[in-house]
Amino acid sequence: MASFTPFTILLLTWLLMALPLCFSESRLFRFQDDIRPLIPLDEFGFTSPGGLELVLSHFSFSFSPPIHPHPDLSQVGFFLWPRQSLTHLIRQFDNRQIECPLRTDIVKKSALTFHDFVGRSSNSFTMFRSIDVDEHYTLLFANCVEGMKISMEVESSMFDLISPGVFSPGNYLSAGEKPLPIVYLLFCSAYFALTLLWTLRFLIGYKK
């Protein structure tokens, strides 16, 4: 029967704690004939100038029955909305006080719509958006074309930049997660110290 030394247990514990960080860089979303008009996807807390990167692939749309042969794809896309006012946005949208979030003043200039991408020869597109405000945002997808079904794959990444003006990812941890590496390091150090004490006590007892 296999036995585990304290060091092995310590190493496994550290790996299990660090595992979520390995998958925090990007998220993959798949849509198949999705007709929902508003879909929250992800959220991120920016604490310095940051960026949003979206990789869109296998995009297609259809209607049943077939209508709108040339829909306005500027009404289909992604946008960021402050998390603290997300409930208010959804309530206004459900009550039809807002017809399309992509047309609102707060979103219009920063939205990433499909108007400039669909129709190209490539079936994969990359979208970028710089974030200049320290805020906790929710990433949403809006489909404001009535009756249109969307199929696509989207890979999203949100991060803080290494330095302002340089679009190079620096930190993929959201605002509330940034202390985690320090916390994990403290726990790891504590486990390591306890392991040394246990080993020292074992050796002293063995010599006696």
Structural features, described:
The protein is an alpha+beta fold and 208 residues long. The protein has helices spanning 6-22, 86-94, 105-108, 180-207, and strands at 27-34, 38-45, 50-63, 76-82, 112-113, 124-131, 136-143, 148-163, 166-171. It folds into 2 domains: 1-24 and 178-208; 26-172, Jelly Rolls, CATH 2.60.120. The protein is 28% helix and 37% strand. Strand 8 and strand 9 form a beta hairpin. It is elongated and about 85 Å long.
Average pLDDT number:
75
Question: Can you name the CATH architecture of the largest domain?
Answer: Sandwich
Number of discrete helical segments: 4
Query: Unreliable runs, pLDDT <50, ≥5 residues?
Result: none
How many domains? 2
Strand content: 35-45%
Structural class: alpha+beta
Tell me, what is the CATH class of the largest domain?
Answer: Mainly Beta
**How many strands in all?**
9
- The end-to-end span amounts to 28 Å
Main beta-sheet annotation:
5 strands, antiparallel
Overall geometry comes to elongated
What is the chain-wise order of helices and strands? HEEEEHHEEEEEH
Task: Report Rg.
Answer: 24 Å
Q: Would you give the CATH topology of the largest domain?
A: Jelly Rolls
Helix content: 25-40%
